[in-house]
Specification:
three-stranded antiparallel beta sheet, 19% strand, Dipeptide-binding Protein, domain 3, D-Maltodextrin-Binding Protein, domain 2, alpha+beta, nine-stranded mixed beta sheet
Length: 559
């Protein structure tokens, strides 16, 4: 077991090296990763927090309790307000945060069978309101996740925890009911919340804390103007290095063209998450006094289908829709050839990525033949029908994303050509990625998702039949996808620490999902992000879902 755990940690380092090679292969210099021009000396960080950075996001953060269901833009804020026990850095290595060290077999933090865990915590850490952070807060956070009355973002792994004990204010222990390989990675994305506030709430789902969060992170909550911005201020009692900025503003700009314009004019200092759209890339890289970074991202863009809808219940329909998708045209014409086509949910940088899956091929004639064979016959207006069900559906994504809107229009025509009617209904992010998405109110969505946690390929929360929120499950299986063999493989994949065995499991899992097609994968993202010249510390990473993971390290240097 010692070798297996050590292998997990070495694997993270190896993946990081691969990631760095690929980023550098895209034409990036190390200086650009740090927001510096080649040959410019890096200025030392200020002695005390000073200055402000305005971060541009095209989606609005709306969930501020990090243990509740949320999306990537919310996590971009959580990373600055809260702290996990440890966090993956830009190289994929786990770095202690609230813990003093990463638990391993060698240091006695994890037993050789992987079942007994003991974590040592930093002394002297305080919450933003001045109250002391202790092991009681960690235990409370774990217990809250497992509270059936709490809307937890996921429970996989946490529901295996037994005998959680506060050994002292700076030490906590527990036992796992069975080995669970992804738990190190999962804990790296589990932010600890304050017991002294949430334990008093009549209902933690509706606590005032959820709109006025208190954390241990490098920045503190200052204000939120819904629909416009969130302001954070430096935490003067932060336990780690930094922060070096006095103020951080997350500005919500729903129109990606407007957001790029504000980046051009200097109204925002960093344009991230969805970042700079591909059609603006050539213009962006010519901008004076801006640093543009292109690199791989862990997200996969897909058409995600709600399998509870009668139109999508038959695999033949899903396969026909995929065959009728002109994937190459979307990538080349809409995204300027920058992303890489994919048919799976894991990025190529993952050790579990299956390179042997059948590629998607654009073949509308085959798509029509499959629908004919399945009994879907043309009806009124050329839209196919079967047993009184029309092959008609809505497709939704974030309003204001003109690039996605263009891709939607291409798909709309693709599918119209085979007798499928897609109606576009886009919505503000706070609407579409709320209950509409999380409780499966949609027909289909165009969405980009990072399904890894800290680099681990466990996707139980997305594909397990027990992770369907609309059916009372804790998870993100909004597709309402159910496959007993997938459930079995998901369990098998987390039950062993042997990397080779896990890889075989995930390859098989990807093969089945490629066959079942609950989502129609289009491409793996690249990030096109930018910073204003002189902003030091920005570091993109494929191991996080949002590159605001280290704002505490940012500061203004040489201009």
């Amino acid at each position: 077991m010692t070798d297996q755990w050590d292998g997990l940690l070495r694997g993270a380092m190896a993946r990081a090296a691969l990631s760095r090679r690929r980023v550098l292969g895209a034409g990036l210099a190390g200086a650009a990763l740090l927001g510096l021009r080649p040959g410019v000396a890096r200025a030392a960080p200020p002695a005390k927090p000073t200055g402000q950075v305005v971060i541009g996001f095209s989606q609005e953060p709306t969930v501020f309790n990090p243990l509740m269901p949320h999306i990537e833009v919310d996590q971009g804020v959580h990373l600055n307000l809260f702290s996990p026990l440890w966090l993956p850095n830009a190289s994929g290595d786990f770095v202690p945060e609230l813990a003093t060290e990463l638990p391993t077999v060698a240091n006695g933090g994890i037993s050789e069978d992987g079942l007994t865990w003991r974590v040592k915590l930093r002394p002297g850490v305080t919450w933003h309101d001045g109250q002391p952070f202790t092991a009681d807060d960690v235990k409370f956070s774990f217990d809250l996740i497992n509270n059936k009355n709490f809307r937890a973002w996921l429970r996989n792994g946490f529901n295996l925890m037994q005998d959680i004990k506060v050994e002292s204010p700076t030490e906590i222990s527990w036992r796992m009911a069975k080995p669970y390989a992804p738990f190190l990675a999962l804990l790296s994305w589990t932010f600890i919340v304050p017991k002294h506030i949430l334990a008093k709430a009549a209902d933690p789902n509706t606590s005032p804390f959820n709109n006025a969060p208190v954390g241990t992170g490098p920045f503190m909550w200052k204000e939120r103007v819904p629909g416009d911005h969130i302001t954070l201020s430096a935490n003067p009692h932060y336990f780690g290095k930094g922060p070096y900025l006095e103020t951080v503003v997350f500005r919500y700009i729903p129109d990606l063209t407007v957001m790029f314009t504000q980046f051009q004019t200097g109204a925002i200092d960093y344009i991230g998450l969805q970042g700079i759209t591909a059609d603006h890339y050539n213009q962006a890289k010519k901008l004076k006094d801006r640093t543009i970074v292109v690199g791989p991202a862990p997200f996969t863009e897909s058409i995600t289908l709600n399998l509870s809808r009668p139109q999508f219940k038959e695999r033949a329909v899903r396969e026909a829709l995929y065959a009728a998708m002109d994937n190459k045209a979307i990538i080349d014409q809409v995204y300027y050839g920058l992303p890489s086509p994919t048919v799976t949910f894991l990025p190529r940088q993952s050790w579990a990525f299956n390179p042997h899956l059948a590629p998607q091929k654009y073949d509308p004639a085959k798509a029509k033949a499959m629908l004919d064979a399945a009994g879907w016959k043309p009806g009124a207006g050329g839209v196919r029908e079967k047993n009184g069900v029309r092959l008609a559906f809505l497709n939704s994504t974030t309003a204001g994303n003109h690039v996605r809107s263009t891709a939607q229009q291409l798909l709309q025509q693709n599918w119209r050509d085979i007798g499928a009617e897609m109606t576009i209904k886009n919505m503000p992010p706070a609407v579409i990625w709320g209950d509409y998405f999380n409780l499966s109110h949609y027909d289909s969505v165009m969405v980009g998702e990072d399904m890894m946690y800290g680099g681990d390929p466990d996707v139980t929360t997305y594909f397990s039949s027990k992770a369907i929120p609309a059916k009372g499950g804790a998870g993100q299986n909004t597709m309402e996808y159910v496959n007993p063999e997938v459930d079995k493989l998901l369990q098998e994949g987390v039950s062993t620490f042997d990397r080779a065995k896990r890889q075989k499991v995930y390859w098989k899992l990807e093969d089945i999902i490629r066959h079942d097609l609950p989502q129609l994968c289009i491409f793996q993202y690249v990030t096109i992000e930018g910073t204003k010249k002189g902003l030091i510390g920005y570091q993109p990473s494929v191991y996080v879902s949002c590159n605001t993971w280290n704002v505490k390290d940012w500061y203004w240097g040489t201009s």
